[in-house]
Design a protein that fits this description.
This protein is about 50% helix and about 10% strand. The chain is α/β, with parallel strands linked by helices. The chain has a single domain, classed as TIM Barrel, CATH 3.20.20. A six-stranded parallel β-sheet has the order 2-3-4-5-6-7. Strands 1-9-8 form a three-stranded parallel β-sheet, with no helix packed on it.
């Protein structure tokens, strides 16, 4: 636990906005090791990638026990801090969310994502109810003595909340302030990629902001200039890997040739990744 607390404090410091924290999202132990070996200061999990690797769709449809086991393997595979995407918290009540967060900490993570969207089209949780879930996560972490980094995701942009851009920004700020007030450390307006709006949000909150990587997003240096504190890749690496497999499978099927199976990582190299202590 002392080592986990040390990692949690280090992870907190990575959100001080002196430089942007780029977080790759792993879905198993070997991808976590690849990211750590590539020099990333911390690693996140991707709920989609983890669920798919376990044989389930995304959206809290993978059993929590299996998700936590996969998360523990990721956390134990690397020396850098690991933060876990817990979606809405795997619970119908704040107390159950607290139980989920407690179990995630016991699995070895020092950060969590909790989102305010509901797993049905176009639905946002009521702001007070969403804030209660963040508060329960903070209470669970405090009870264990771990300074957990809570990344509160708001789905206002992904779900295109409101009738105008101004209304969407206003609601995002309102939700973010409520979540920060009850213990969130960072705000994640998933789906927001507009530089002007990002800059306005940073100024309105004066708090760490997380954005999701996507083609067309301003470059890392520009995001840092805008004041963005954290960038995560979400499912992008997982879908990139699956896309590469799909392309090679189709090419092998259609051509009968094997050039498509050439890979920069060999079997011995991957073996060595996992044999390292």
């Amino acid at each position: 636990m002392d080592e986990q607390i040390r990692k949690a404090r280090a992870f907190q410091q990575m959100h001080d906005r002196s430089s942007i924290l780029v977080l790759p999202n792993a879905w198993d132990a070997v991808t976590a090791r690849i990211f750590a070996r590539s020099g990333y200061r911390a690693v996140a999990t991707t709920s989609g990638g983890v669920a798919w690797s376990l044989g389930y769709p995304d959206g809290e449809r993978a059993p929590l026990e299996e998700v936590l086991s996969a998360t523990a393997r990721i956390a134990h595979a690397v020396d850098v801090p690991v933060t876990a995407d817990l979606e809405t918290g795997y619970g119908s009540t704040p107390g159950e969310v607290g139980d989920t967060v407690r179990a995630a900490i016991q699995a070895g993570v020092v950060g969590v994502n909790i989102e305010d969207g509901l797993h049905r089209p176009g639905a946002l949780r009521e702001i007070d109810a969403a804030a209660e879930r963040i508060a329960a996560a903070r209470e669970a972490a405090s009870a264990l003595g771990v300074p957990l980094v809570i990344n509160a995701r708001t789905d206002t942009y992904m779900l295109k909340y409101g009738a105008s851009d101004a209304e969407r920004l206003e609601e995002t700020v309102r939700r973010a302030k409520a979540y920060l007030a009850v213990g969130a450390d960072c705000i994640y307006p998933i789906g927001l990629a507009d530089a002007t709006v990002l800059e306005a949000l940073v100024k309105a909150l004066d708090a760490p902001i997380n954005v999701g990587a996507r083609p067309g997003l301003p470059a890392v240096a520009e995001l840092e200039r805008l004041g963005v504190a954290r960038l995560s890749t979400a499912t992008r690496f997982a879908t990139l890997a699956l896309s590469a497999v799909e392309r090679a499978a189709r090419e092998l099927r259609s051509s009968g040739r094997f050039e498509c199976l050439d890979a920069s990582l060999t079997h011995p190299e991957v073996q060595r990744l996992l044999e390292q202590s």
